[in-house]
Hints:
Shape of chain A: flat
CATH superfamily of chain B: MetI-like
CATH class of chain B: Mainly Alpha
Structural class of chain A: mainly alpha
CATH architecture of chain A: Orthogonal Bundle
Number of strands of chain A: 0
Radius of gyration of chain A: 27 Å
Number of helices of chain B: 10
CATH superfamily of chain A: MetI-like
Structural class of chain B: mainly alpha
Low-confidence stretches of chain A: none
Low-confidence stretches of chain B: 1-18, 323-328
CATH topology of chain A: MetI-like fold
Distance between the termini of chain B: 31 Å
Number of domains of chain A: 1
Oligomer: heterodimer
Mean pLDDT of chain B: 84
Shape of chain B: globular
Order of helices and strands of chain B: HEEHHHHHHHHH
Strand content of chain A: under 5%
Number of helices of chain A: 11
Largest sheet of chain B: 2 strands, antiparallel
Mean pLDDT of chain A: 88
Number of strands of chain B: 2
Strand order of the largest sheet of chain B: 1-2
Radius of gyration of chain B: 26 Å
CATH architecture of chain B: Orthogonal Bundle
Number of domains of chain B: 1
Helix content of chain A: over 70%
Largest sheet of chain A: none
Distance between the termini of chain A: 46 Å
CATH topology of chain B: MetI-like fold
Helix content of chain B: over 70%
Amino acid sequence: MTTAPYQRGVAAPDPHPWRMRGRRAFVDRLATVAVYLAFVIALVPLVAVVWYTVGRGMARFGSNFLTHSMAGVGPLDRNGGAYHAILGTVEQVLLASAISVPLGLLASIYLNEYGGHKMTTIVRLLVDVMTGIPSIVAGLFVFAFWVLALHKGFSGFAGAMALAVLMLPVVVRTSEEMLRLVPDAFREAAYALGIPKWRTILSIVLPTASTGITTGVMLAVARVTGETAPLLLTVFGSQYINGNPFRGAQSGLPLLIFQQASSAYPAAIDRAWAAAFTLILIVVALYVGARLLTRRDALNRR
Amino acid sequence: MSQALAPLNAPDMVSAPRRVRRVEPFRGITLAAALVTLAILLAIAVFLVSKAIPALRADTASFLSTRAWQPDATPPVFGVAALAFGTVLSSALALTMAVPVAVGVAIFIVEYAPKRLANWLGYAVDLLAAVPSVVFGLWGVYVLIPHITGFQRWLANWFGWIPLFSDPDGHTQTASRSIFVAAVVLAIMVLPIVAAVSREVLRQADPALKEAALALGATRWEMVRTAVLPPSRSGITGGVMLGLGRALGETIAVALVLGTSFSINWHILTPGGNTIAANIANYFAEAGPTGRSALIATGLVLFAMTLFVNTIARAVIYRGAPRRRVGR
C-alpha cells in the first residue's frame, strides 16, 4: 500500500479512519450506556416484586394455606387461608372463558374469513378501543346492568361477566392474528376439492390455527386472573367457601389480597403476601404454558 | 371462444344458488358474534349513562367542578374535579418516568442486545406486564413506600424550589402516600406496554436504511437516531397513548398506595390526591344508592377519557402501520 504524496493545504490522511474520536464517539458511548441502563432500570421492579412476593409469601404459603378458608378468622389470627378464594377465582375465570372464547372466536372468524372491508375495519377499530376499557369500568357496567337494572345480587357469575368483557377483545384480536397466519393455499386446496366454506373453516383453518388460538386464550386468561377492580363491584368478596358461582357473594384471590393488604395487622399482611405468591404462581404457569405452546406452533415459526 | 366455454359454465350457474344457501348460516352466526361484541361496547355506555343520571340529578353542587365527596349526605354534594385532576396528574407523571425507560428498553432489545438473548429479554419485560396490579399495590405499600420516603424527603429538600416538588408544611418528613409514589407504581405498570409496542415498531425499521446509515460511517447511535427512530415515531406515540389509557384506568394499585382525599394538590410529594378509579374501589363497599350512582357517574367520566385516548392511540398506530389485508 503506497502512502499518498504530500500536498500543500490538504490534511494528512487519517492513519486510523475506522476509529471515531471526539464528540461523536462520546455521544455513541453515552447512548450505549443510557440504553443498557434503561434495561437495567426496567428489570429492577420486576426482580424486586418477584423477590419480595416469594420471600414474604413463603411465610404463610403451604398446604394449610391452600386448604383453609377465612371463615371465622379475625385480622389478628395467624391461621386462615385462600381455599375459598382459589375456588372462586377458578370458577369465575372458567365461566368468563366459557362466555368470551366462543363469542370472540366466532367474531374473529367473521373478521378474517367473511367480513367485507368497511365492516371489518369498523369492528376491528371498536374491538381495539374495547381493549383499552379500564377494568373498573367493566365492573361498573356489570354492576349497573346486573345488580341495579336486573336486580340480581352479587355473584361469581356477575364477576365472570365483567371478566368476559375484558377478555373478549383480547380473544378476538389474538385469534384473528392466528387465523391470518393460515396460508391461503390451505383454503384454496379445500375449495378445489369442493368443500364448502364453512367446512373449510371448521375442519381446515381452525385446526391449523388452534395452537396459536389456545396460546392467545391462555394469555387472555392470565390477564383477567389477576383483575381485582371488577370483582370488587360484582363478586364483592366473602370469607366463606361458596362453591356456587350463581348465588351469593364469592371471594377471589385478587380480592383476598386486596382485603388482607388493606388491613394494618401483620398476620393479615402475611396472608396477603402468601395469596399474592399463589396468584403469581398461577399467572406465571399460564404464561409459561402459553410460551411452550407457541414454540410447538408450526405457523408461528418465522 | 365464448361458444366453447358455455357448456363448462352451465353446471356452475345451476349450482350457484344451492351453494349460497349452504354457506350462509355460518356467516350469519359469525356476524352475529361480531355484532354482539360491538353491542357490549354500546351497552357499557348506555348503562353507565342511565345509572349515573339519578345521582347527577340529585347533586346539589356542580359535578364537574366540586372538590368534595358526600353523595350520601342530605343534600348530596359531590364532584369529579379533584379526582379527575389526580387521575391526569398521576398518569402524566407516570408517563414522564416510564416513556424514556421504555423506549430505551425497546432500543436495547432490538438494536443493542445480542440476537440470541434479545427474545428472552423481551419475555422478561413482558413478564412485568403479567404481574397482577393488586400485587404491585401490595408491593407498593409494604416495600416501595418505606424505601421511597427518604428519596421524597431528599427531593423536597434539594428541589423544593420547583413548585411541583415543594413541601410547604413539611409533610414529607413523616408521610409518603403521595401522588409521586402512585406515579412510580403506575410507571412500572405502564412500562411493559410502551416497551412492547415500541419494540414491535422499531423491529419494522427498514434494514436497507440502517445499512445505508452504517455504510455512510454513522455510529450505532447515529444509525438508530437517523434510520430507526424517525419512521417509528408515530408507532411509539401510539404505544405511549395506550400506556396512558392503562395508567388512567388503573385502580387497585393506586387505591392501595394512595389515601383518600379530595383536594387539588400540586405538591406531588405531599400526601393527598386521589384518582377516579381508586376512589371507586375505596368507596364502593360503604356507599349508599346515591353514592353508588355517583361513583358510576365518575366511572362514566373515566370511560370517556380512556375512550378518547385509546381512539387517538389506535388512529395514530393505524396511520403508521403498513396497510393490512382486510377480510377475504
